[in-house]
Design brief:
The chain is an all-alpha fold. The chain has two domains: 128 residues, Alpha Horseshoe (Serine Threonine Protein Phosphatase 5, Tetratricopeptide repeat), CATH 1.25.40; 67 residues, no CATH class. Helix content is 81%, strand content 0%. The chain has ten helices and no strands. The longest helix has 24 residues. The chain is globular and about 40 Å long.
């Protein structure tokens, strides 16, 4: 798994630089080295999401099918990995991300499947935070879900705590998702949401 992890980390670095073809190649190589490494499937799905969103093809059928396939495979493999290595909070966070993207790409809001992915995502984040309450990636994932549920005050607290813990994160995964910069925007969005609710 060590070589696959190197490929995945480099893939996330390429993703942060918007070098999508290189990132896709690294994630695919990681899968060929270790086809049971769920994080590689999450990364490959994110390449599809980010690259297609930029090129305007986020909703085309072939891309949607590729994203859903990779995310479904990621959930399955990460579930197996959690079964044998539940002590690592990063696996829980990766699976939470996969559930969040599956809800966005494969479900209509308000459906049972959408609700299932939301609940699984929150449960996975809770497990990650039990293992490491200082994990900024888990706080951000939880904040995103709370923001979507309209729980603005709680979301704001999570985003602010994540910023305090990692004001200048160098993690490839954090950079790849522009998490810290996005986190600042999420705090503003949560404040705005609270203001709208008060009005």
């Amino acid at each position: 798994m060590a070589m696959a992890m190197i490929q995945v980390n480099r893939g996330f670095s390429y993703l942060s630089l918007e070098m999508y073809e290189n990132a896709l190649q690294d994630f695919t190589q990681a899968i060929s080295i270790d086809c049971s490494f769920g994080a590689a499937f999450v990364g490959r799905a994110l390449v599809h999401v980010f690259h297609r969103c930029e090129s305007g093809g986020a909703n085309d059928g072939a891309n949607r099918a590729a994203v859903v396939h990779d995310l479904t495979e990621a959930v399955k493999l990460l579930s197996e990995l959690i079964g044998v290595a539940a002590h690592d909070p990063s696996w829980w966070v990766y699976r939470a991300q996969a559930h969040r993207y599956l809800a966005a790409f494969n479900c209509r809001p308000g459906t049972q499947l959408f609700s299932f992915h939301q609940k699984r995502m929150l449960k996975d984040v809770e497990e990650a935070l039990k293992l490491n309450p200082q994990l900024s990636a888990a706080l951000i994932e939880q904040g995103l879900q709370l923001l979507e549920l309209g729980r603005f005050r709680e979301a704001q607290a999570d985003f602010q705590q994540a910023l305090k813990l990692s004001p200048r994160s160098t993690s490839p995964q954090d950079r790849a998702c522009n998490r810290i910069d996005s986190c600042r925007r999420f705090v503003r969005a949560a404040c705005f949401g609270r203001a709208v609710v008060v009005l």
